[in-house]
Amino acid sequence: MVAALIEGTLPFLRPPALHQSRRHIAGRHLLRRVRRSRCCVPASKRPVIFFLAALSDDPIREWILTEGKATEIRGISSIGGGCINFANRYDTDGGSFFVKTNRSIGPSMFEGEALGLNAMYATKTIRVPQPFKVGALPTGGSFIIMEYIEFGSSRGDQSVLGKKLAEMHKAGKSDKGFGFDVDNTIGSTPQINTWSSDWIEFFSEHRLGYQLNLALKQYGDSSIYEKGQRLIKSMGPLFDGAVIEPCLLHGDLWSGNISSDKTGEPVILDPACFYGHNEAEFGMSWCAGFGGSFYSSYFEVMPKQQGFEKRRDLYMLYHYLNHYNLFGSGYRSSAMSIIDDYLRILKA
Asked: Record's GO cellular component, any one (predicted)?
């Protein structure tokens, strides 16, 4: 690509619009320097110098204008973002791209997301945005470029969502056990996915245990740590009668990560994928808005396991603990209440 630019064989590239960021202000200064020295630069080479600097300085533009097969970026618009990342829509003559950036976390977070999206995409069940490129930002941080999906006016039909999600769980199997090929993140919290043949062991160590250790380290919260450890040691009977197989999970399924496309088909995004017990997918149901039609359709494809109701709060506990570690004490009481209830039920 660089050699082609040096030889001037890509005349169709147009200089991208300059924006009021430090990077683009620097680009404007570069252009002024080129103009001031134009007597020393052959006319056929002037645009090439600009493109080389602009593209190498902005890996997002570079990918879109090369591998993304666009020749012109016509607009960049913010489409909001969560409390972790920034999100933008890039409109080009070859279509639109969805781009997320994070100014402080390296590419590993988005690499984990891309692997999860690809795994869900490969099941050919529920729609997810296809990832195209992950990389580092030259000023620090990272980015991910993916398919832009035009969302519809609602979250879609709950019964269709339940059916499609169950189909993904049924299709996405692993012969390696419980875990994932890479560690990833839940929000910005590291999520350890070391493979294990035992679900209770995996969930104890890499989900509840990890979050409890983080709360102890971050807040010095010995009370929730000690009670949580008692629960971990005593929770085995909650799984009696359940047949647990590793299923591909989205991992962070709340209302903000659920939508529908223009045709009404459900779309799920921003995953924290791993292979686990399918019931763990409902751990964020306290802010997902799943209704009766969702569960009815889901259980038609993936039958309800014995003891489902007994385990529901256990899977919520992981996410309450994570919210406590991410956002502070507002979530502590919910996590502690679940722990106390289980300790009483289990007489632990």
From this structure: chloroplast
Rounded to whole angstroms, the Cα distance separating 75 from 96 reads: 9
Q: Has residue 199 been placed in a domain?
A: yes
Bridging pattern class, strands 131-136 and 86-92: unpaired
Same domain, 199 and 117: no
Helix axis angle, 209-219 relative to 308-327, nearest 10°?
30
Within-domain flag for 111:
yes
Segment 279-296, tens digit of pLDDT:
999 999 999 999 999 999
Statement: residue 141 has pLDDT above 80: yes
Catalytic residue among 58, 183, 221, 252: 252
Query: Which structure tokens are listed for 41?
Result: 């630069």
- Indicate if 252 belongs to the active site: yes
- The strand pair at 95-102 and 142-147 is best described as antiparallel
Element (H, E) at 86: strand 86-92
Determine, yes or no, domain membership for 62. Answer: no
| pLDDT at residue 81, rounded to an integer | 63
Per-residue model confidence as pLDDT tens digits over 304-321: 999 999 999 999 999 999
Which two three-digit tokens encode residue 121? 């995409």
Strands 184-186 and 131-136: unpaired
DSSP one-letter string for 225-276: HHHHHHHHHH-GGGGTT-----EEE-S--SGGGEEEBTTS-EEE-S---EEE
Q: In which region does residue 213 sit, left (phi positive, over 0), alpha (psi from -120 to 50) or beta (all else)?
A: alpha
